[in-house]
Amino acid sequence: MSKKVVTMGEIMLRLSTPGYLKFQQANSFDVVYGGGEANVAVSLANYGLDAYFVTKLPDNPIGQSALNSLRQYGVKTDYIARGGNRLGIYFLETGASMRPSKVVYDRANSAIAEADVSDFNFDEIFEGAEWFHFSGITPAISDKAAVLTEEALKAAKKHGVTVSVDLNYRKKLWTPEKAQKVMTNLMQYVDVCIGNEEDAEKVLGFKPGETDVTKGELELEGYKSIFKAMKEKFGFKYVVTTLRESYSASDNGWSALIYDGNEFYRSRKYDIRIVDRVGGGDSFAGGLIYSLVTGQNFKDALEFAVAASALKHTIPGDFNHASLEEVMTLVKGDASGRVQR
Fold first, then answer.
1. What are the φ and ψ backbone dihedral angles of 153, each rounded to 5 degrees?
2. How many angstroms separate the first and last alpha carbons of the chain?
3. How far is CA 106 from CA 12, 76, 94, 141, 172, in A?
4. What is the DSSP string of 274-292?
5. Cβ atoms within 10 A of the Cβ of 124, count?
6. Whether the Cβ atoms of residue 92 and residue 15 lie closer than 8 Å to each other
């Protein structure tokens, strides 16, 4: 029997400039849909799990298009509420070399931001579920979304569901002070905590030593010290971080670190040439959840997650379309990129 996994958050309309055009150069936008927890659900469905995405979408053709995009890739949409005023939008300008990518949000008053707890039957949603995943983006959307998130977490724990969070700090949505106030409270429900160095500092107040990703410098001992402190404070089963070394907008080093309370383990490192980095962290979370929920040990789970997310950086759009076979090929060491004939 397939595992039931639930994610909850916002799916948005993504409007990106063609190729590497800047906003002021573009006369058209490429259209896809995506968003943190939706991206995770697509990865999990792609790997064969029963992945359910929970959100609220406007009852209009744009909302239906977003719904269809999830169904297209096997995500189960049974628990998606309909109504509200609009679908959130984000505009993306893809960077290259020393020019960074840029995101402009137009997501205020979206359907999920205005959703009520009464829009969802969380007892039904979590019945038979093994895992629930959310991110720090969802409670940042609005105060109502923060309340909705906590109610979902309470129901998940009531049903004995394992919970993971990707801290995902977004400075355009809230301040570190607000993030820490809201997210520190939510950590009581979390079993697996995922976040990079900025997330740990801005969302939970832990700074990892002398790490400076803008210079491509990682100070692993700093991570180890905050992982221990985070586990001691919140009781997480695993604390996990991706390790991105940003040489430029086009080239990154990519690995990850996990702590289980006894051992720190760092994955293999990949040097990646980026096609589209949006959704890279979500593909990592999807790979980690898939591996852990299907019984892999935490080291193998980390290697799978890093390989999956390395491949996602080569795929346009928010979603990771790399197959299980493709991820496992990379895990086993074939990073040649040779043509498959």
1. -65, -40
2. 34
3. 10, 26, 17, 11, 11
4. -S--TTHHHHHHHHHHHHH
5. 11
6. yes
Cα–Cα distance, 274 to 21 (Å, whole number) = 16
Query: In terms of DSSP bridges, do strands 30-34 and 12-16 run parallel, antiparallel, or are they unpaired?
Result: antiparallel
CA atoms of 38 and 65, how far apart (whole Å)? 14
pTM metric for this prediction? 0.94
* Lowest-pLDDT choice from 50-54, 244-248, 299-303: 244-248
Per-residue pLDDT reduced to its tens digit, 106-154: 999 999 999 999 999 999 999 999 999 999 999 999 999 999 999 999 9
Determine the Cα–Cα distance for residues 127 and 4; give it in Å rounded to an integer.
Answer: 9
- The pLDDT of residue 267 is above 90: yes
Helix (H, G, I), strand (E, B) or coil at 24: helix
Nearest to residue 199, comparing CAs of 184, 189, 188?
184
Instruction: For residues 12 and 206, give the distance between their C-alpha atoms in angstroms, rounded to a whole number.
Output: 30
DSSP-derived secondary structure letter, 157? H
Tell me the residue type at 138: T
- Cβ atoms within 10 A of the Cβ of 123, count? 10
Sign of CA dihedral 246, 296, 189, 131: positive
Distance CA 65, CA 83 (A): 14
DSSP label of 196 = -
Measured CA to CA, the distance from residue 328 to residue 339 in angstroms comes to 17
**Tokens at residue 124, please?**
């039904």
Query: To 5 degrees, how large is the angle CA 257–CA 261–CA 262?
Result: 90
Reduced to 3 states, what is the DSSP secondary structure of residue 113?
coil
What is the predicted pLDDT for the residue at 217? 61
* Among the listed residues 251, 182, 185, 181, the one whose alpha carbon sits nearest the alpha carbon of residue 216: 251
Task: Please name the residue ranges forming H helices in the chain.
Answer: 36-46, 61-72, 122-126, 137-141, 143-158, 176-186, 197-204, 220-234, 280-293, 298-312, 324-331
Q: For residue 117, which of 162, 158, 147 has the smallest C-alpha distance?
A: 147
Q: Cβ distance 42 to 327 under 8 Å?
A: no
